[in-house]
């Protein structure tokens, strides 16, 4: 397997071809450089330091590159592994990245090519692509993953407003504990899911729990412009982090 520095001329050419959907140039690069489809592109410095596959580049931030599904198909046909791992601060697959960027088209293309919908390694708790989509508020890819059969945790289900699944977690044979219900409540506020938030509060969730990024449920609802949830929380005396000890 070839390893290329991100500033290598070939790496720059193939990256540009992928990001612009330039299939003729990508096809030529793959033909002239056997093994390129499985190459690793290495970024030496900064937050992105580590090595990634060419499929990671298709799914990289901000996503939605022209011709993304066709690029995925060409790379996979040339030997790229749809389950390749990032090697660095985390071990995400290209599917994690597509989920994190709300890129449904590339997500579908990766799954069609054999990507593992339950692959662990997300920056959100080491979880699946759904954990990334949910954690970053990428609702289209989150719902698409559920539609295609991704397993949901209580927090996934609450954040997406999947009330039937939430009830199974809370009232089923092995009911979720208080901490899990509280985290799910925070998630419901993040997702703007008023009915789910109300249900979880009735089942003992902590109204002012401080969650991700040092935010309370009220803080995250405000950040997501979930106005109905914000009003409902304020009516119940919810506080932002700045108001708490």
Automatic annotation (TrEMBL):
InterPro entries: Ankyrin_rpt, Ankyrin_rpt-contain_sf. The keyword Repeat applies. It comes from the Bacteria. Keywords: ANK repeat, Repeat. The keyword Repeat applies. PANTHER family: ANKYRIN REPEAT DOMAIN-CONTAINING PROTEIN 39-RELATED. This is Ankyrin repeat domain-containing protein. The lineage of its organism: Bacteria, Bacillati, Actinomycetota, Actinomycetes, Kitasatosporales. ANK repeats lie at residues 90-122.
